[in-house]
Design goal:
mainly alpha, 118 residues, 4 helices, elongated
């Protein structure tokens, strides 16, 4: 079943590619016709091409995934502005304190090594 689906998808993707290539070729081949007619024809064929592509299993699974992601995103409880500011300040304070502690440790170890080597 899965290999049959993959074959059908491959055939649909190939058909979509051929349709797109033929549309681009026809756009330039029929340059004697007015530009607006060629553009409208190209747009119409591209829309038809999208119908072929959007009926593949890969695109269907992508649509299901994006729908599920949106549903899950609606369930997320977002932090308030005050909470974000508070946690940012706490993180900055912890970073400064840790930097000072590591600087102090580095100075102490450097002094200890100098004392041992001197």
């Amino acid at each position: 079943m899965d290999t049959e689906t993959n074959k059908n998808d491959l055939i649909k993707w190939i058909i979509a590619g051929v349709i797109l290539a033929a549309a681009i070729f026809a756009f330039y081949y029929f340059d004697q016709y007015p530009f607006i007619y060629r553009v409208l024809g190209l747009i119409g064929i591209i829309v038809l091409d999208f119908f072929v592509v959007f009926n593949t299993e890969k695109v269907k699974s992508l649509r299901i995934f994006t729908h599920d992601a949106r549903v899950e995103l609606k369930k997320v409880i977002w932090s308030t502005k005050a909470e974000v500011i508070q946690t940012t300040i706490i993180v900055l304070i912890v970073v400064v304190i840790m930097s000072l502690l590591l600087w102090l440790l580095d100075k102490l170890l450097g002094a200890g090594i100098k004392l041992l080597l001197a």
